[in-house]
Amino acid sequence: MKRSLLFLALILPWVDSTHAMTQAADEVVRVFLFAGQSNMVGADSSVDDIQRFPPFVGLDQPQDEVLFSYSIGRENKSESEGWVPLAPVRELVGPELSFSRAVAAELNAPIAVIKIAAGGTHLGGDWNPDEPSGFRMYPLALERVRSSLAALDERGLEYRVEGFFWHQGENDMFEESFLPAYGSNLESFIACWRRDLELPELPFFIGELCTKTVWGLDLRPRMHAISVGQRFVTQADPNAHYVPTSHVGVEIDEGLGLHYHYGTLGQLQHGLAYAEAYLERIGHPRSPREPLEPWPYEVGEKVRLFVLAGHRNMEGERAFVEHLEGLDDGAALARNRPQIAYRYDVGGGHRRSAGWEPLGPAGFSETFGPELSFAAALEAEGVGGIAIAKFTHSGSQIVDWTPAGSEATSRNLYPRLLTFVEESIAELAERGQEVELAGVLYHVAENDMSFGPSRDAAADRLGALIRQSRRDLARPGLLWIVSQQPPTDHESVDKLPVTDRIAELAAADPDLIHVRAFDLPPQDKLLVLDARGVVALGRSLAQAWLEAVSAGD
Hints:
By secondary structure, the protein is α/β, with parallel strands linked by helices. It is 34% helix and 18% strand.
């Protein structure tokens, strides 16, 4: 259908003159559909927290240039009267906020978002297209989408529905009949939307259930079953895409720290994950970091390769580059170090370097890990010829790193870690370097410390990982430096002496150093470290390595 285009200021009376936006004659409104349950709603988030996360400052304010139509909630719904400017609803942060800003900046095109979401709803029931039950979300959503698109028609706007973004599945985990049927139910759900909207090739973006939540520990088999169903659909359907989200932040609860909602930071990063997936689909991939040129080492020069590995704080979940300002040597840490080769595979493979890059901030959402201060501390002591390879998955637990893995086979990391290390060594050797694998620096899983069964097994699992890595890399004396921040202090887990057990493991192994990083700067949240904490952690790791080398001499 061809629709004439008019200036929005003239045809949308609800936009006042100070916020009116004009639309060029050749522009098409890109319409995006968002739907799901609580982690699509934005549960346990707050617009007041946005200012704490520098890359997202300003998203608490309306995005007047973005059209928004919504129906959010179950019994007590919040619903827009037609189209309104995009803004937080109920003071909550949804992924549409960061998604829209990122997409608008890249495309410079008019955008409209239709969102229908309600916590605690099932795909097998509420969202079932054929037999909706409970809150009957499918017919409600279909009516909201149709009426919203009709309103664009009435205003003479030309539009194109660009994608459907879906995050749901947690509640289907608890229903024995829904759990094994998730893949087939999702397949039917997608087919019905395409049929009912008469859009047979409508792209779908299926958000992964974040394994960093508490459910990633205690409901690991059930979460895996949902992911199997999601991947079944997205692997078979060229217009359906699986969007990883286990790298995003998760809200920190009181007590044990673990939570089952993304919260503010997680929702903001959740939206960016969708934006990256959409933009890549339409030929606008994320810009890579600059390559390492020129190569910083002489042919034949020995290079000390350090492997950094771990979870949330090794990734640097809440360590923002902007917060380096005011810290000692913070400005220097924020700059690239072209004299140090850096290779990474982080977020469970969500982001990988394009070969070797100069060491510098390369995390999600302008974050960084302890590799920056670690390298700086070594250089300050005259250690040269350094290369760093970093492998992390902040949505993992220690069991995922063990050679045996777990029933959640898609999360088994050990084979990928081994390949990553071997490739790093081989690539340096191919460039003519003499490679010394100087050590593996691993930060103990933060979430494991808050969940009794994982905490109880942590030392044994860590030992299995270390022993097998030495065998498989044919380096029986490979140095491992294992750092540990203060473990969760709570009556439900205090009886499990995880620190003592790791210390005993190290005492029996002359090539294992246990770093008790218990003197980190005070932190606002349990489990996660801010920029100051991550910088201090990197320096502690460097000091431990220097002492180990000195003792060996």
